[in-house]
Amino acid sequence: MNRYIALEGIDGAGKTSVSTALALLLEEAGHEVVRVREPGGTAVGEGLRKILLDGPPVTSWAEALMFAAARAQLVVEVIRPALDRGAWVLSDRSVYSSLAYQGAGRGLGMDRVRRINQPGLRGTWPDVVVLLSVSPAEGLARQARPDRIGAQGVPFLRAVAEGFARLADEEPGRFAVIDAGCPMEQVVAGAWDALGVPG
User: Has residue 139 got a pLDDT over 70?
Assistant: First the structure.
C-alpha cells in the first residue's frame, strides 16, 4: 500500500495546509499518521534547516548537499521506522523538492542531484507525490515572510515550477497534479483521492 505521501510545489502552494487536512482525514479513518517536514524532523535536520532557510548565503552545491544530509537522517530516524510499523507518512517536501529547486532552479541538473540523494534514501522514495500547482507570482503573494530560498523571486520559482512539471511528466504514475488555485475544499478532495485510502 502507498503510505509515504509527499506534498510538493513551489513556495506558497499550500503544502502545509493540505498536509494538515489530510492528516485529520487519515486519523479519522483510524490510521496512524506521522507528519514530517524537509528539511527538519530530526535534531540534525532542524539544525540544517536554520542554516538553509534563515542563514547566510551558501553555494548551490553546499545547499544541495545539506538538503541531502538532512533527508538521509530523516529517512533513518523517522520515515523508515514509521513505514515499517504501518503508519502513514505525510511529508511537507521530499527529495523531489531538491530535484526541482537545486536541480532545475539552481541549474545543477536533476540527474546529478538525484545521484547525490540516492545513497541516503536507501530506496525510500515517496509512493505518491501530491504536486500543488500555483503560479510563481501567486505563490510569492501568499507568503507572509519568505525564507532565503522562497525569496529568490519569480524567475527562480518559474524554473522550479518547470522542474516539478517535468518530473510529473516523467513519473505520471507517482504524481497527482492539483490546481492549488482552487478553493481549499477542492484541493484537499483531490489530494485525498490521490492517496487511494482503502474503504
Answer: no
Grid coordinates of 114:
538525484
Which among 126, 121, 130, 85 has a CA at the least distance from the CA of 2? 126
4-195 CATH, one of 3.40.50.150, 3.40.50.300, 3.20.20.70, 3.40.630.30: 3.40.50.300
> Domain map of the chain by residue range?
4-195
Q: Quick one: 199 exposed, middle or buried, by C-beta within 10 A (0-12, 13-18, 19+)? A: exposed
Rounded to 5°, angle at Cα 13 from 136 and 23 = 170
Question: What is the C-alpha to C-alpha distance for residues 35 and 89, in angstroms, rounded to an integer?
Answer: 6
Question: Please, which residues bridge with residue 88 across strands?
Answer: 33
Which residues 6+ apart lie within 8 Å of 182 measured at CB? 190
DSSP 51-97: HHHHSS---HHHHHHHHHHHHHHHIIIIIHHHHHTT-EEEEES-HHH
Which band of pLDDT confidence, cut at 50, 70 and 90, is reported for residue 138?
confident
User: Which pLDDT tens digit goes with each residue over 147-184?
Assistant: 666 667 788 989 999 999 999 999 999 999 999 989 99
Please report, rounded to a whole number, the percentage of residues in the chain having pLDDT higher than 70: 92
d(CA 166, CA 164): 5
